[in-house]
Amino acid sequence: MIRSMGISRRLAALAISLAPASSTVLADPPEVSKDAPPEPVRNLFEKFCLSCHQGEKSEGGLDLVKLMAKGSPAASRKPWNRVKENVSGGVMPPEDNPQPSEGDVALLASWVDEEIKKIDCGATVDPGRVTIRRLNRVEYDNTIRDLTGVDFQPADDFPSDDVGYGFDNIGDVLSLPPILMEKYLAAAETIASRAIVAGAAGRPPIKTFEGVELEAAGGSTHNDDGRILSTDGEIAVAHAFPRDATYTVRVQAYGQQAGDEPARMMIKLDGKPLRSYDVTAIEGTAGTYEIQEKLPAGPARIAAAFVNDFWDPNHPEPAKRDRNLVVQAIEIEGPLNARGDEPPLSQKLIIFQTPTKPVEIGDCTVAVLERFLRRAYRRPVTGGEVAKLVRLAELARENGESYERGIQLAVQAVLASPQFLFRVELYRPKRDRKGKVIDEPGGVRLNDYEIASRLSYFLWNSMPDDELFQLASEGRLHEEAVLEAQVQRLIRDPKSDAFVESFAGQWLQLRNLKTVNPDRGQFPTFDEPLRDAMQQESERFFASLLRDDGSLLDFIDCDYSFLNERLAAHYGVPGVKGPEFRKVTLGPGGRGGLITQASVLTVTSNPSRTSPVKRGKWVLEQILGSPPPPPPPDVPQLADDSKGPLVGTLRQRMEQHRANPSCTSCHARLDPPGFGLENYNAIGAWRDMDGDLPIDAAARLPTGESFRGPAELKAILKTRKAEFVRCLGEKMLTYALGRGLEEPDVCAVEKIVKNVSDGQYRLSRMVLEIVKSDPFLKRKG
């Protein structure tokens, strides 16, 4: 009793050490904090909870003493909601422990709910600060496309971006390792050479393929001297021609001569003969055979074919019995600035002024580089920044290079600059007349150029376009009506496909679909067309809600989806013919909404079976925003099949697996949503049986609601729409800001949730509210 009194006094005061409770009585306990739980709630914790949830070895990592010391539940919403959910659902205390009365449980739930509503969102705003952000791989590719007009993916060769808070655009984790800097330098040179034809004095790019880079087709072997064609066949390379232009193709080869004619070689483009040669060169003195042709842009296959094989095993001289062709290298030079070739569109985009006489070169150089630099840096530029690039172009001309070559070198320098590679938001503090910084507790509003960049990288994963730049230069982009109009314009632009693929792909974990590998023996219908159809269904579904002003509650449940014949057959939906996707109304049953789409069901399964744990975790994290704690390190894995000590359906084996008391609390939250989806197999097809046993898709959530099957589960999730809107709002705001959310962001999230709810739960309204929020438009001073 004395020990109990000591604990109670310390809880009441919230002046608690982090060590386990002492058995001594505090003679003069301080006053009870205004944030302390009321005495009945403290008594409930003391009687039923503190024996397990106090001190360094707290069960499930939850120390209630520490949690209460943090103050009101409004400051620690997620852990308090989890406490309420576990107690209300009967998960805690465990069944073999004393249980609180219904009145105690109702009191705890009511207190948590009321406290969480008490968020102090006063006039003072803390919008937070974003770490300077490097362009991730997607942003880099898209920015290069819009800046230079060169549409290829140089970032495919970059190292993978790190992920933080579920996304790959978080400033804190986008580091710059040395290997990536090397890749940036190489990419800058390649992009500049593709974007601008350097002129007669320039050096066209040359790509040489040799050794193992030479692809063999036919009777080919490889040695140190090259590829040997000992019978009719060909050596080929794949090359992406950047634009329609003239190119030189060179083949270094020699013949192992025999018979009455020399080895003959034919150069081909995608199987079409271009020119043939008698290869009279012999070993030790390889010859170069070239052709100059105007070739179309795009990927192509260049081949050197051996077309006159000869073999005479009876020839008296062994060296003359066999005619072979040896290819040492294939070289492609260009694009060339040949007569009659039009400059590429990328060059016209960058070099919008071309001098017609020497006196105009200086002014044209300044105009071209100032415009390019302003677009590349995404802000106004100084005269000094432009002057450095102009001097670089002048040096090129002084060394005999062309006007275009000078611009090309300047472009290359810009693409390797930190001002291009990073999204920089400079802090410009206000100062009084004496130069002292004026404190700005409500945050500093971003300038219009910074807002333009935040907006375009949020919805396009790319740089601002001319309209955004123009509005920024006019100082109008921060106006609410203008900002709303631009949000709607960007959403409806095809470039917002990048937002769908990037945000939805990471929120829904669709990116994992590319790497999952279901067991083809158990699931023979799974193939690449089905994988692609799964991905397209989810992306088209998201895009439809975004652009057609749809309700984000359709993410939870609806009566339609986007299917083609392949996916419809997988779902058992009749009447859908052809490879084209179209909006299809679904019949009654469990299908409809995200959690029953095959993409989600497949990425949350194991290769040979479903995973109620993964599916339940997905629902908790992506729909309800209530992720479970990580599993203890010593928990054994459940076998992928029914062989072994655990038998029965997967559900029965899982229930045996979680009989361990240390597993019960987490599995009680994880498993029920997963059990409700057990009618879908590991690739999302409907089933009624697990092997020879019927599926049991009934379960009870920790919050107390019971359901049977996916339709009833979704109906319950839809009643928790406030949690879903908050979860989605938090994830989208994290993605938009490029940083993790902090406690001051709670007010912004609550405002977003309220306005979206008042706006009929439109997904486009959520995007707009995020753009209008203080964390998006301001930064900490």
Automatic annotation (TrEMBL):
Range of residues in the leader sequence: 1-27
**Residue ranges constituting the DUF1588 domain according to the UniProt record:** 591-689
Record-annotated Carbohydrate binding module xylan-binding domain positions: 248-342
Superkingdom: Bacteria
The DUF1592 domain sits at 446-573
Residue stretches making up the Cytochrome C Planctomycete-type domain: 49-96
Q: Which residues form the DUF1595 domain?
A: 365-425
InterPro entries documented for this protein: CBM60_xylan-bd, Cyt_c-like_dom_sf, Cyt_c_Planctomycete-type, DUF1585, DUF1587, DUF1588, DUF1592, DUF1595
Q: What Gene3D superfamilies would the database entry show?
A: 2.60.60.40
Keywords attached to this entry:
Signal
Q: Give the DUF1585 domain ranges.
A: 704-776
Please state every residue range assigned to the domain named DUF1587.
Answer: 133-196
Question: Key word Hydrolase present in the record?
Answer: no
Q: Does the keyword Signal apply?
A: yes
* Name assigned to this protein: DUF1592 domain-containing protein
